[in-house]
Write a structure and sequence with these properties.
alpha/beta, 413 residues, 17% strand, four-stranded parallel β-sheet, 16 strands, single chain
Length: 413
């Protein structure tokens, strides 16, 4: 830990530009720069990745070779734009592709598989890892760096049990109203939540499912439906920070009394608190890949903000940092040009990073989720639940990593 903490300080002092030499190890990073979605998350991820590159290079690189990021713009909303970005990186001779996420997984995976280049991504996508499990030879060098999105739904329902049992929250009732957007990602999350509700033996009840369509122009019909139903839990399965901030503003003006409000993931994005203008206070959200407030995690946050300002997302900087560190660790003992040998080394890797412990030695080639797939925190990536408290994101679950207890929001007092 001491070496890595010192590395953050060194990285903060370095310029983000690294001279290009023929012996550099190139890492392809497809980054949304002009897309209508994902730009803030991708910028956070790239910043974290570059910090790792600077840190590693400051220590002499990998066996004397410097790392260098090859960055291309990617259109996250079109298969053609996704494939084009990956083909451009393959043409540049990258030794790996590392990505925050893509929205359309298979075209990206097929483009990476065409060259066999190791591809590490944070798609948070059940469909991505199912493709790997079903086609192990074709996608042998493709790895997801976080648990899949189902835990945003299934795990959250289990967390409700823990929150009630702790005495910090007494639900007005045990009905859950789900608001779901129509893309596959949010639909999978909604379905996982509904499955957990059905498996609760009547403890939880599905009150209603309300559909929304991106872009949401007006949340009034949704808020009216929430008030009519009066469920004890409101579960909004949507991920666009600006739209969730608009929801928070309208809900704060006309709330559903006594409801716990869960905004799934979107508040993690840096712009949410600014756009919500205080209206997000008391709302909760989660991530299956975050930065626990450990000593090392806080040191990283300080170094990141020294470089990039305080408007830092909660998820992607540490993910980018960890991914580059994992590649470097493998490359120290494996030729970067031998893609299959690198893939084999990643499958046998166990890496303790900022976000948790990464392992890939299973059919889906992705880490375990703590606490739902392993009850040993040191064996997985913690599923973190945050509440907006005093206009800051505050971890409230799991209990071992909590910074504070759940606070009853103003509309439920």
């Amino acid at each position: 830990m001491t070496t890595r903490l010192a590395g953050y300080a060194a990285a903060a002092a370095l310029t983000l530009a690294t001279p290009a030499f023929a012996q550099d190890i190139l890492i392809g990073i497809p980054t949304a720069q002009s897309s209508v979605v994902g730009v803030a998350d991708h910028a956070d991820w790239l910043n974290g990745a570059q910090m790792a590159i600077d840190d590693i290079n400051a220590e002499g690189g990998v066996n004397g070779r410097m790392l260098r990021a090859e960055v291309v713009d990617i259109d996250l909303l079109s298969p053609e734009g996704t494939v084009g970005a990956f083909q451009a990186l393959n043409a540049r001779g990258v030794s790996a592709i590392a990505s925050a996420f893509v929205i359309i997984p298979q075209p990206a995976m097929d483009a990476a598989a065409a060259s066999g280049v190791p591809y590490m991504h944070g798609n948070t996508s059940l469909s991505s890892v199912e493709l790997v499990a079903q086609n192990p030879e074709r996608y042998r060098n493709i790895f997801m760096i976080d648990p899949d999105e189902t835990w945003y739904g299934y795990g959250f329902i289990r967390y409700l049990d823990q929150l009630e049992a702790s005495g910090q929250w007494s639900p007005a009732n045990h009905r859950i109203h789900i608001v779901q957007e129509q893309i596959a990602y949010t639909q999978v999350i909604s379905q996982a939540a509904q499955r957990a509700i059905a498996e609760s033996d009547g403890r939880w009840e599905l009150a209603e499912v309300t559909d929304i369509q991106f872009p949401v122009q007006d949340w009034t019909p949704v808020i009216n439906a929430l008030k009519d139903e009066g469920a004890g839990v409101i579960f909004v399965s949507h991920w666009i920070a600006a739209e969730l901030a608009a929801f928070a503003q309208q809900f704060a003006y006309d709330p559903t009394p006594d409801s716990l409000v869960y905004l799934q993931y979107g508040p993690s994005q840096p712009e949410f608190l600014d756009l919500a203008r205080g209206a997000g206070e008391g709302m909760i959200w989660g991530t299956v890949l975050g930065t626990p407030r450990t000593e090392e995690g806080m040191a990283f946050r300080d170094a990141y903000m020294a470089l990039h300002g305080e408007n830092m997302g909660e998820v992607y900087p540490a993910s980018g940092y960890d991914t580059i560190q994992m590649l470097a660790e493998v490359w120290r003992t494996t030729d970067p040009a031998d893609f299959d040998a690198v893939g084999q080394a990643i499958r046998h890797l166990s890496y303790q990073g900022l976000a948790g412990t990464y392992t890939f030695d299973r059919d889906q080639q992705r880490p375990l989720n703590y606490p739902w797939e392993t009850d040993v925190m040191a064996e997985g990536i913690p599923h973190l639940i945050y509440q907006v408290q005093d206009n800051h994101h505050t971890i409230i679950l799991p209990a071992e990593l909590a910074e504070a207890e759940y606070q009853t929001p103003h509309w439920a007092e």
